[in-house]
Amino acid sequence: MPVREAMRRWFADALLASGQSEFIGLLDDDRSIWGSQILGYPVIGPITAWSECKPDGVAIAIEDNGSRKQLFEQLLVAGATLISIINPSAVMSIDVKVGRGVLILANVVVNS
Q1: How far apart are CA 110 and CA 112, in angstroms?
Q2: Are strands 103-104 and 85-86 parallel, antiparallel or unpaired?
Q3: CB of 60 within 8 A of CB of 75?
Q4: Cα-to-chain-centroid distance, residue 63
Q5: In 3-state terms, what secondary structure has residue 100?
Q6: pLDDT, tens only, 15-42
Q7: In angstroms, rounded to a whole number, what is the distance separating the alpha carbons of residues 59 and 47?
Q8: Distance (Å, rounded) from C-alpha 60 to C-alpha 26?
Q9: Per 3-state DSSP, what percentage of the chain is helix, strand, and coil (rounded to 5)?
Q10: What are the residue ranges spanned by the domains of the chain?
Q11: How far apart are CA 33 and CA 31, in angstroms?
Q12: ∠ CA 37-39-45 to the nearest 5 degrees?
């Protein structure tokens, strides 16, 4: 499975497992997957359509750090509420502080 495809599934799995937000679907700039489903949730359209969906929060799941940072900053300027998603199987040290917009996937260990 290509990394990008796997990242979509890992992201959806982490959000669903966390139970912290209602999951309405994914946004992805890859036109070839618009209208498809990932773990039973629709791929709605491009990332730029986030405001049309009227979400309570937006989470970013992009594997490239530079692209993720750029999108994070663009969404902040546009007024998006960026949420963090932590899969409940992650193990975190008691003194770890998680900022907004962080994605921690299954079975990850985070120490300070």
Answers
A1: 7
A2: parallel
A3: yes
A4: 10
A5: coil
A6: 889 988 788 889 999 999 999 998 888 9
A7: 11
A8: 10
A9: 35, 15, 50
A10: 3-110
A11: 5
A12: 35
Query: Are 40 and 23 within 8 A, CB to CB?
Result: no
- The encoded tokens of residue 78 equal 């546009």
Tokens read off for 35: 């209208």
Give the pLDDT band (50/70/90) at residue 1.
low
**Residue 101: HSE in the Cβ half-sphere, 13 Å Cα cutoff:** 15
| Residue 28 neighbours by CB under 8 Å, 6+ apart | 8, 34, 43, 46, 47
Residues 42 and 26: their CA atoms lie apart, in Å, by 6
What pLDDT, on a 0 to 100 scale, did the predictor assign at position 91? 97
Which tokens in the block code for residue 34? 């618009």
Select from 3.40.50, 3.90.550, 3.90.1200, 3.30.160 the CATH code of 3-110: 3.40.50
What predicted TM-score, i.e. pTM, was given to this entire model? 0.83
Give me 82's structure tokens.
């960026």
